[in-house]
Design brief:
Blueprint: E1 7-10, E2 17-22, H1 31-38, E3 49-54, E4 57-63, H2 72-89, E5 93-97, H3 98-101, H4 106-116, E6 134-138, H5 142-167, H6 175-187, E7 192-197, H7 199-204, H8 210-214, E8 222-229, E9 238-248, H9 268-283, E10 288-298, E11 310-312, E12 318-320, H10 328-338, E13 346-351, H11 355-361, E14 366-370, H12 373-386, E15 390-392, E16 410-411, H13 419-428, E17 436-440, H14 459-470
Parallel strand pairs: 1-6, 2-4, 2-5, 5-6, 9-10, 9-13, 12-16, 13-17, 14-15
Antiparallel strand pairs: 3-4, 7-8, 8-10, 11-12, 14-17
Length: 471
């Protein structure tokens, strides 16, 4: 993870490179930029750039396109182009006027810049050498902008941390590795502590589903609870639950080899919980949050669970296995039962759960399900504020019929139709004792399954939701 060393909110800056964002058809007071516009050397289209020198000062103009069409996506593209040009020019520090960005776009600018600077080179012999060292945002509202910068940095740091965890291969990012990451993260905060259970305790508690998933792997399985208690002692916690399949072969229902390369990212839900907890720790928020991750590998050997097996969950619900590749819901169902011990205010689970979600909403939108309209609306608001898109999907009760089993209480698959909905309905059977929402991030956390790219989502949405609960 590569980061910007210092981002300041100042009333003036001594730096000799200034970034100027400019809209199409606008004029500029800076001679070198105006000359480029007049001569057609620079047209201020989205993500276009122009570098010039005026009176001994460097100016880098970045196009934003038409003013009435500016949106978060176009600004992110412009910031990514800015970073690319800075790197090519080897400019490691710059100033920018907040009015050039737009005071209501400070957070998007900072998050976009840190995300653009992200590189995963931990496993390469040759490392990226370019690094931004200083960014000055010039503003007359320094304290307000400094707060926006602080929040944006925490969110982006959490998002890039989640990317790192997903980019590490499963031979490095094992269940033990993630358990140690949880410990380090909680040790970094005076409000943090770690509680976890292993397979022996899972068996004692009757967790027949998550233990079955991990049976074919040499890796131990864990449920790890990162307990952050920054609020009042008696305040009920918000509980986040992440699916942490560090690798998913599909089990005995083996995936095609072409689909396996990205399956190191099947712990994207857990990565998002880690990233959100990192942001919360950095912001030192006065709230109680339990970040819970179900850490397990779905591999195969002679002890693997089979299609046709019937498992008994911690809740006592029996589950007939139709497909061993529908394993995430099995790891989650026992975890969702286990976290009842926290008497949660609300529970939000995050999972790269279904390929059907990618078919439904593509690679950019998170599927949002829930058993409480107020919670769903709060998450939708956070999604809008953080520009981390989500769409409310129905928990259509009639589709419970698709989960009926002839020999057990429930089947673990619901057939090809409405696969994301039936998966959410399966989880809903284990969440009846509390207010709950489910985020299916199979697309948004990894841009789909083919040529998967770690996005670190939905860390911005979850962090914004939690910030909103503090207010």
């Amino acid at each position: 993870m590569r980061d910007i060393m210092q981002i300041n909110a100042l009333t003036q800056s001594p730096l000799q490179t200034e970034i100027v964002f400019i809209f199409d058809n606008d004029d500029s007071t800076i001679t070198t930029i105006q000359d480029a516009l007049t001569q057609g050397l620079f047209k201020a289209k989205v993500a276009s750039t122009y570098f010039g020198v005026d009176n001994g000062k460097n100016y880098l103009a970045v196009g934003l396109g038409e003013k009435d069409k500016l949106n978060t996506n176009s600004l992110r593209k412009a910031v990514a182009a800015l970073y690319k040009q800075l790197k090519s020019l080897n400019i490691d520090r710059f100033a920018v006027d907040s009015q050039s960005i737009g005071d209501n776009h400070i957070r998007t600018f900072v998050e976009g810049l840190i995300n653009a600077a992200y590189v995963f080179d931990q496993l390469k012999s040759e490392k990226e050498t370019f690094k931004l060292t200083q960014v000055d945002i010039v503003t007359q509202s320094a304290s307000e902008v400094a707060n926006e910068i602080h929040v944006a940095q925490a969110v982006a740091h959490g998002q890039n941390y989640a990317k790192d965890l997903k980019n590490f291969p499963a031979n490095i990012c094992t269940t033990d590795y993630l358990l140690n990451e949880a410990k380090k993260l909680m040790d970094s905060s005076k409000h943090g502590s770690l509680h976890y259970i292993g397979e022996d305790e899972m068996h004692k508690l009757g967790m027949g589903c998550i233990t079955a998933v991990g049976r074919g792997s040499s890796m131990p399985s864990y449920i790890a609870c990162m307990e952050y208690r920054g609020g009042n002692k008696d305040d009920k916690p918000i509980v986040l639950v992440g699916k942490g399949l560090v690798y998913d072969t599909g089990g005995l229902c083996l995936k095609p080899w072409q689909s396996m390369g990205s399956m190191k990212m099947d712990m994207g839900g857990a990565a998002a919980v880690f990233g959100t907890m990192k942001a919360i720790v950095e912001l030192n928020l006065p709230i109680n949050i339990i970040g819970t991750v179900a850490l397990v590998e779905n591999s195969l050997d002679g002890d693997s669970y089979r299609p046709g097996d019937v498992l008994t969950s911690m809740k006592g619900i029996t589950v007939e296995i139709g497909n061993t590749d529908a394993e995430g819901r099995l790891a989650l169902c026992d975890t969702l039962t286990y976290i009842e011990r926290y008497d949660p205010k609300v529970v939000i689970d995050v999972a790269t759960l279904t390929g059907a979600m990618v078919i439904s909403l593509g690679g950019d939108i998170t599927g949002l399900f829930g058993n409480n309209d107020a919670l769903v609306n709060d998450i939708k608001l956070a999604a809008e504020e953080s520009h981390d898109h989500a769409w409310h999907m129905p928990l259509h009760q009639a589709y419970h019929e698709q989960l009926k089993s002839e020999i057990a209480d429930v089947y673990n698959i619901g057939g090809p139709a409405a696969g994301s909905i039936t998966a959410a309905l399966f989880l809903s059977k284990f969440t009846e004792k509390y207010t709950w929402a489910h985020l299916d991030v199979a697309g948004s956390a990894m841009k789909g399954f083919e040529k998967a790219t770690a996005t670190g989502r939905p860390v911005p949405m979850l962090t914004q939701y939690i910030i909103n609960q503090v207010k």
